[in-house]
Prior knowledge:
By secondary structure, this protein is an alpha+beta fold. The chain has 5 helices and 18 strands. The chain has 2 domains: 122 residues, Box (Proliferating Cell Nuclear Antigen); 96 residues, DNA Polymerase III, subunit A, domain 2 (DNA Polymerase III, Chain A, domain 2). β17 and β18 form a beta hairpin.
Amino acid sequence: MLVKLENPILLAKAVELISELVTEVRIKVNEYGMGITAMDPANVAMIGFNLPRMNFSQLEAEEESLGVNLDDLKRILKRCGTGSSLILERKENKLEIQIQDRIRRNFTLNLLDIEGEELDFNAKTERMEFIAKVEIESVDLVASIEDCAVVSDACSFVINNEKFIIEARGLNSAKSEFSGDEAKIEGENARAKYSLEYLQKFIKGAKLVEKTKIAFAEDHPLKMQFKTDYLDLSFVLAPRVETEN
Length: 245
């Protein structure tokens, strides 16, 4: 396997985001590009990442699975600057990484045997019920999530009467409300509550896109997607269901 990226910054940013949720992953490489699917250790969040073929100036791979420590990979990718190109080449149980800019720098990353089932993000999410869908400006989503984090550790996503609401309630409260003029709102009325600890990690991906897609259902998982022609980074988060004592 040998791949070359002329602009590795997108990969570096995605790896940095994903590393906040999971430490070790399998990176899949094939003729269509590079991808990651992983579940966080608490089985609360699932990550799906895809870097399409168009990003690569060279891609020689059939079906490769690279087990890596994301913290180690993240530190290496941070050495890429604007104008750097990145070459990844597998040699037995090692991943040789070359950064080319004014000079050539070489790193070697030990590959890991990752235990557990191999996940298919699309197959998993296709079985989920998403009756409510919203496309919102990323800056508005970030502001609303951060507002809720000021007053609580969880917030609710709500569609009610063709309005999209993000709110947190406790001793104090915060609420953002969007009409069809501020967001694209589709589907049925629904309400579900989610952990702000996870959402605050997810929304760091909003820096990559102008608009964020959200899908959820009544007390069902949330899907948050940051997608452009050059990458697709998605997260699924289990709902926080209140139980009565």
